[in-house]
Structure formats: structure tokens, C-alpha cells
Amino acid sequence: MKYDPIKKSLGVIFNKKPFLRKLFYRLLDLLLIRTWHIKKAIKIWKKNYREGANILDAGSGFGQYSFYLSKQSKNWKILGVDVKTEQIEDCNRFFKKIGKSERINFEFADLTKFTKNQEYDLILSVDVMEHILEDVLVFKNFHQSLKEGGMVLISTPSDQGGSDVHDEDDHSFIDEHVRDGYNINEIEEKLKSAGFTKVEARYAYGAPGKISWKLSMKYPILLLNASKLFFIILPVYYIITYPISFILNYFDVNIKHKTGTGLIVKAYK
After folding, report:
1. What is the CATH classification number for the domain harbouring 218?
2. Which of 129, 151, 168, 229 has the most crowded CB, counting CB atoms within 10 A?
């Protein structure tokens, strides 16, 4: 499934004006279950960092999480890094236009090589690790880059059907993935081997989340891959389906799942 071309097409539409870019971020916040989970975790974390924090958005993509973080405190400094130079340039232009470039910047970085010496209070990694083969090396770099007491917050598919893979014959819904998903014990052990003293992992995308993901992401992407004409009826589609997805997202975030197709992981130094 070609996911990047769809993202690029949407980027062309929403990059024309800053208010459209902000609208795009808002739509992603509403639609993506992982964003609901990440925002909940950040709200808990930020209670101890109201006076200031250095944050690394590791795999910043469109910059939507950097934008969300920027609204939480004027005292936070944020660096977004990514391997896609066009997205880095795009994000720097956008954040300069909206007057936030003094405390939010973006630069090219390969996470297998990027490291700082105890620089960050929080490292955010949203749907990134499933793209990187040398994951333990990245975890070690995260550990080195964190201050004492700092936290890494990770969202990634699990091996319980993540990337829409349910058996050996299935293929990842996203072509760019190097692994279909992590076993919950596997990622905990890898983070501890990288030096983290405390790791908390839990399932996301439980029963309600799996239905919501299909309604809000899988089916629209399948249709857009079939024909770009679906862009025309996409707003009507979401007007019909989003109230259902909203309720399902709420339950997914507020229920403890015995299993799920996603993982939310917190690792502390």
C-alpha cells in the first residue's frame, strides 16, 4: 500500500496557507488514535516541566507533534529531526511563518547516528521505530541524549496485528515498514538493554481502536489509492463516519487493553 504519495498529495493542499496547515494538524489530532494516546501521555508528563524543557521530536514528519508541543508551554525548546530533507525544509518554513522558529527548529538526522550528551528531557518517537532496522542502536542513542530522569515516549505497531498483519501470508499495510510490529516483551527488553532503568509498555488500538482505524484511515487510503477522485467526497465520508470514530477513540484511550495492534511505550533514564 502506497502511503507516502497520499501524504504528499494532502501536503500540497494544506501547505498553501498557514491556517490550512493548522487545520490539517487539527484534523490529524481528531482522526488518529495514536495522537489521542500521545496527547494523554504528554499531559501527564508535562506536570513536572512547566518551567522549561528541551524536547526532541525524533522523526518529526509533517511537524504535527512539534506543533502540539509548542502550544503546551512557551518555555519548551523543540528540535524536530527527520531523514526526509523536503519535510525538514517545509517545517522550518512553516514554523518561521507562524513566528515560532526561535524555539522550534528542524534538521536532517539519521537516528542511528544522531546523539547528544544528556540534552533532552523528552524524546518523542511516533510511528518511527517500525521503519528502522537497527532499533537497539537508536534506543542507545536516545538513552545517551536524555537527561537523568528524562523519558522516551514511543508509539509503534505491535505484533498483535499491527500494520494490518495477522498471519505469515499478510503484508504490511504500509510498504515502508521494516518490521510489522513489536512483541511487547521484546521492546521492553531492547530498551532495558540500551540502558533504560524503567520501561512501561501498554497496548493501544484495542477492539474499539481497530474499528476506528479502519474507518478513519484504512478505508480512505485504500480508496484514494484506487482513485484521486475520492478526495472530492472525502469530507462527506468523514462527516458520516467521524462521530462513530470519535466514540471509539475515546474508549480506546480510556480502556486498558489485554491486547492491541499498537503499543505506547514510556522508557525512563
Report:
1. 3.40.50.150
2. 129
Distance CA 64, CA 179 (A): 24
- Please state, as a whole number, how many other Cβ atoms lie within 10 Å of the Cβ of residue 105: 18
Sequence-separated contacts (24+) of 189-192 with Cβ below 8 Å: 190/135, 190/136, 190/139, 191/139, 191/152, 191/265, 191/267
pLDDT range class, residue 227, cuts 50, 70, 90: confident
> For residue 182, what are the contacts with CB-CB under 8 A and spacing of at least 6?
129, 130, 156, 157, 158, 159, 162, 263
**Composition of the chain by helix, strand, coil, percent to 5:** 50, 20, 30
**Percent of the chain's residues with pLDDT above 90:** 72
Domain total of the chain: 1
pTM: 0.90
Q: For residues 105 and 77, what is the distance between their CA atoms, to the nearest angstrom?
A: 9
DSSP string, 122-161: EEEEES-GGG-S-HHHHHHHHHHHEEEEEEEEEEEEBTTT
| Domain region containing 158 | 4-268
